[in-house]
């Protein structure tokens, strides 16, 4: 599976993310984002895509291009608003999205208390595995949200894998979730999942976590600078 914060265009414009300078045409960027996800699922053999910061435009395009897949979403109550003029978009709403095999169903969808633009969407796939896409707030607010994710790991007896933008480095998650949860470790020398603006450094704040399952073959994927985050991928093997 893969996890990727695809970068909502409104947030990109408001914070001047470098991706918008490379991709000034938002419909073209949407097309390329959806092409990357579609290729991963339909050609490269991925079974699940966990996506964050999905605009309504990206969501509709995913559904148009992946009719055989379940494209499940959780919309936030907050509507992103441009602070400056930006490119036209049809649908500014923001969603968490899980793209999974047909027949997958929503297990839980929740906006975190205290932040109307962060949350978790958990889905049961036909094999019984529970997978979840999450976007966690920065700092103490985010650490409080870990409690919701810890509870999710125990809400089902099935193997559970949670991926997303945790806004925290791996060692923070290891301390927060304890020994029973595997926090995927990227190989040494991997590109940063959240590159800095000058592309010379950055942070690793995107992660895959598993309980009653093992993670292997973790890697960072190329994304043609479509977002301010790089996708990460792994193989998930139930214990």
TrEMBL record:
InterPro entries: Endo/exonu/phosph_ase_sf (IPR036691), Endo/exonuclease/phosphatase (IPR005135). Coiled coil: none annotated. Residues 2-229 form the Endonuclease/exonuclease/phosphatase domain. Pfam families: Exo_endo_phos (PF03372). GO terms for molecular function: catalytic activity. This is Endonuclease/exonuclease/phosphatase domain-containing protein. It comes from Cystobacter ferrugineus.
């Amino acid at each position: 599976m893969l996890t990727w914060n695809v970068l909502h265009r409104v947030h990109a414009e408001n914070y001047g993310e470098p991706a918008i300078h490379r991709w000034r045409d938002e419909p073209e960027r949407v097309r390329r984002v959806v092409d990357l996800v579609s290729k991963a699922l339909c050609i490269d053999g991925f079974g699940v895509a966990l996506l964050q910061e999905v605009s309504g435009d990206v969501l509709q395009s995913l559904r148009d291009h992946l009719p055989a897949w379940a494209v499940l979403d959780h919309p936030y109550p907050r509507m992103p608003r441009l602070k400056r003029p930006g490119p036209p978009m049809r649908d500014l709403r923001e969603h968490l999205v899980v793209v999974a095999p047909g027949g997958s169903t929503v297990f839980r969808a929740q906006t975190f208390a205290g932040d109307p633009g962060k949350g978790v969407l958990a889905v049961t796939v036909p094999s019984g595995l529970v997978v979840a896409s999450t976007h966690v707030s920065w700092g103490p607010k985010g650490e409080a949200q870990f409690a919701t994710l810890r509870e999710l790991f125990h809400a089902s007896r099935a193997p559970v894998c949670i991926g997303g933008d945790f806004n925290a480095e791996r060692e923070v998650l290891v301390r927060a979730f304890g020994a029973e949860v595997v926090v995927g470790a990227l190989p040494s020398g991997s590109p940063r999942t959240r590159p800095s603006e000058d592309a010379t450094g950055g942070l690793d704040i995107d992660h895959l976590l598993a309980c009653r399952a093992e993670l292997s073959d973790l890697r960072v994927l190329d994304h043609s600078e479509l977002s301010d985050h790089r996708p990460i991928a792994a193989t998930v093997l139930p214990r």
